[in-house]
What we know:
By secondary structure, chain A is α+β, with helices and mostly antiparallel strands. Helices cover 69% and strands 9% of the residues of chain A. Chain A has two domains: 207 residues, Up-down Bundle (Multidrug efflux transporter AcrB transmembrane fold), CATH 1.20.1640.10; 58 residues. Chain A has a four-stranded antiparallel beta sheet with strand order 2-3-1-4. By secondary structure, chain B is an alpha+beta fold. Chain B is built from ten helices and 13 strands. In chain B, a hairpin with a 6-residue loop joins strand 7 and strand 8. The interface between A and B is large, with 69 and 69 residues.
Amino acid sequence: MIVIKYKKIWYLLSVILIAASIWAVYQYGFNPSIDFKGGTITEISYKERPAKELIESKIEQSGASVRTSGESNYVIRTKEPLDADLGGEIIRQNTIGPVAGAELQSKATKAIVVVVLMIVLFITFAFRKVSKPVASWKYGLATIVALAHDVIIPTGIFVYLGREIDLLFVTGLLAILGYSVHDTIVVFDRVRENLRINQDKEFEATVGKSVNQTFTRSINTSLTIFIMLLALYIFGSSATQSFSLLLIIGLIAGTYSSIFIASPLLVTFYKLQNK
Amino acid sequence: MRKHIWISAILILVFALIVYFFLRPGAKTPFRFGLDLVGGTELIYRADTSGVEDVRGAMESLREVIERRVNVFGVSEPLIQTERENRLIVELPGVTDIDKAIELIGKTPILEFRLVQDETLISTGLTGQYLARARVEFNQTTNVPQVLLEFNDEGGKLFAKITREHKGELLAIILDSTVISSPVINDEITDGKAVITGQFTPEEARSLVRDLNYGALPVPITLDSTQTIGASLGEVALASGLKAGVIGFIALSLFLILWYRLPGLISVIALVSYIIISLAVFKLIPVTLTAAGIAGFILSIGMAVDANVLIFERAKEELKKGKNTMEAFHEGFKRAWLSIRDSNISSLITAAILFWLGTSAVKGFALTLGVGVLVSMITAISVSRTFLFAIYDRN
């Protein structure tokens, strides 16, 4: 019952983290990758890494960024396709036109909106028979609050870390959404079942009991996914490193929110409507 | 109640067969890997289809024209796809010279008329750019399909000159470096019309006409995005993805066995069957495996355990209430099903929308995640249930 009893503490913790995340976005701003703004990213491998200044002087474009990568590589970001001969071996190059970038941006936004809408509709549908004592759409509302929490906090952390916001980032966010709902549904499903069994019990007690019953499961499942993601982060391809970090942060936020935010919110909604 | 033992034996046999036929090294169906894992070049073109009535037809013939050009290039297993109304995606595995690839695909000769002299082909200067239009006709006496070409004014004059000066010779009609037919020039032709009679089926004649009408490219295209990945980089990405999967799986198995003991071991077996089935499905669909796709699969292995964890935790609760082991597991499977179903539907919704969002990297992730969720619903419930009951029944 700790979860329900001290719900204000859990709320406060989340509110602080969310506020800090929004502040981070406001303060540092997004660092969109070429996926969304267009441009060229080139990684060149050298046997012996030449001086950064030398590389920079050869690129005849303004606004180019040159960063070291790996043992002796440079990652170069330019607005226009790179045509200067910089020696070494180009091991990867990716150019995205401005139109494609804008298109991806609008698609990504659309995808996020559609995922959230579909999930809310689905939850309202799945819990349609549970209308006492809390209306089924309030389960949906509690889920959205948890979802917002799970998306805002990883975004804030990524912005704070200065990581690039690319298409994989959006994909990761959506995967987090999917997982977070998955996790929340398991708890809500238990509430649904317990409401059927003990109709005379206090709503608050029923929710508390449901959270307790699903607590080990929530932690264990998160742990199994955490193990896989950690392996991916440590041993996996560098292409998916940021992605797995994002998923790890999202997993923690999602597990937290389904236990400490979504379920207590049901109780809060119940109390509000009975005032 | 020995049937669970029998079913278990059959399941093991089925999995062994799947491994033998699909997954053993050297099995016929290979995995399909994305460019980011094998290295190569991806070119994305945007087609200007404004002013075209039959957009789908134009895009299809654009794809065919580009495919022919790529085949001339001699790339193994190129992939040319159209996406939505105006995007053309060309994937060239193994090609890392991006400029050469762009040049080849962007070039626009296509239709040419050449004179055949001593088995060599002599350029006449007459090309598809002088073609006004082409259409299918049926010969009025023999009823055999033939292709009528109409040149524009300039082309008509050039054609008249060629036919006047080279009577009796062979004129080869060449499409994208392939000789389509080489008829004999019987007479000077001044009306700017030519007929290609060959052994055409009506279908062939129609597709030739379409190719000719879309002589150059049917619609103008502009290069929008490019991506090149060196082969060595792809190799490293694939190897490290595999390593992460194997290490993660071992750690996960240890956790499950230490925490849940015998049922944990069974869920590991269910997980192995999950991996076998998923990999076979990846080959059969086929799913193009990218770095993100492998990440999706590794993530789904973690998620696949969820159903078992739900069931086992539920069974533990029922045991505490005083039920015996069999009853507890029966109850566990029954009660956990609703949670498993509802929670997985939300993951499937996400996967479907991600697939729709799709660039190739995202699609790879969405597909492996979606397939993973579906397969795990089957294996985590039916496979682990069968093995579990087989073992506990015997005791």
